[in-house]
Amino acid sequence: MGKLEGKVAVITGGATGIGRAAARRFIEEGAFVFIFGRRQDALDAAVADLGPNAHAVKGSVSDEADLDRLYAAVRAERGTLDIVFANAGAGSPLPLGQITAEHINETFDTNVKGTIFTIQKALPLMGPGGSIILTGSSAGTTGAPGFTAYSASKAAVRNLARTWAEDLKGTGIRVNVLSPGATATELAKEALGEEGQKAYGAMTPLQRMADPAEIGAVAAFLASPDSSFMTASEIAVDGGLAQL
Amino acid sequence: MKKLKNKVAVITGGSSGIGLATAKRFVEEGAHVVITGRREKELKEAAAFIERNVTTVAGDVSRLEDLDRVYAVVNEKHGRIDILFANAGAGTIAPLAAATEAHFDQTFDVNVKGLFFTVQKALPLFSDGGSIILTSSVSNVLGLPGFSTYAASKAAVRNFARAWTLELKDRKIRVNSMSPGPIETPALETTTGLTPEQAEQAAAQFASQVPMGRRGKPEEIAAAVTFLASDESSYITGVDFAVDGGLAQV
């Protein structure tokens, strides 16, 4: 029997990359998964791949009305919600000196405001035993040239879990941050090329980039009762990159 | 599917509390375990509780010749180690002004020196691609009056994981420390020198400070250690893995 048997999960940014890998793993463990993303073609491809226990809702985490539609669908189709993997994120590099207000707003709208409302709007559907997982980043604790807005937004996400562990005291709902390092998603592989992937991998003690399935496995652990005494934690899944 | 099928695991401090619960879980997940502890009687009871696929070796991690004996048994019985849970630890309470040299030495002998050689002496038998988990403590980042030597020794343990991650990277051996918060184990009464009433008071006080509002159960730590021991955590190394109900995280 899977460790998420009968559970209902929402995964934002669930059509591709880490979100898709987590969706696959959650379903293998017995969960029903709502994936939320902005592009219909990517959502359609994901559902075709994930099968009947995946349901797609199109929308952006930075749009409150879209989130309301997501949770209306969860309520109508399943009635309750056990797991939220707030994974949607965005970030492009822009060096200090060239940063624009739009760049900051875009990054923070998705990564910080989007994460806050993804969780706030999920709470009425959640109860004891619930698990919230936020996607942080190794960039949240390290300096990377050009990543002012992204790394600051991910540091903010890490800190949301601290406050929320206190805000959720007594509810039986846990909240943790999963912080990936260099992960070989389709998008990253395309952007980096063979050489770039090797270079990124070489920076980590494990000497390779992560397979998205390895991040999905950790998300499944945090979603399951195996992590029942963990809350407010940050789990770095970065091959040791930001740990030494 | 069992996550640790046919793995060989060594657990120090395996006869009670976190070590015992972890040994039980490892076996349920398909592993063969070798547990060590200082007292024969407790080891026998632990083996009976674990039921199957368990070997016991009496020994003290602060005595290097005991460690040699442990690994000689492991070598004879299994010929290799896939998972090492270096968990044996000690800590009595002593305020700065009153702590003795014996208190300091005992804490560091077990928690730092003992753990160092537990890992060093395991290496010749260790399988490439294996997993090492070191028991640290949330106190590695907290100030706790009376626990200064214990907390310092556990900070040392956390840092071992950093250096060893790099030293063992070519063998693909992952090294992580795991930091429990307050757990319902006998240790608070048996090793700290508190009376039962004081221990109960301390436990209640710990629980009130934990965001989850309670102490953890040894089985909850065992589940986290099993995760770190298994391929489920294949991209996690060098971390300090807090299992503390949020105590040191907020």
Q: What distinguishing features does this structure have?
A:
heterodimer, A: 244 residues, alpha/beta, Rossmann fold, B: 250 residues, 7 strands
Protein model, in words:
- Chain A has helices at residues 17-28, 40-50, 64-77, 101-120, 148-167, 186-202, 212-223; strands at residues 8-12, 32-37, 54-58, 83-86, 131-135, 174-180, 234-237.
- Chain A is α/β, with parallel strands linked by helices and 244 residues long.
- Chain A has a single domain, classed as NAD(P)-binding Rossmann-like Domain (Rossmann fold), CATH 3.40.50.
- In chain A, α1 crosses α7 (212-223) and α4 runs parallel beside α5 (148-167).
- Chain B starts with 7 loop residues before the first strand and ends in a 7-residue tail after the last strand.
- In chain B, α2 links the parallel β2 (32-37) and β3.
- Helices cover 43% and strands 17% of the residues of chain B.
- By secondary structure, chain B is α/β, with parallel strands linked by helices.
- The chains are: A alpha/beta (244), B alpha/beta (250).
- The interface between A and B is large, with 38 and 36 residues.
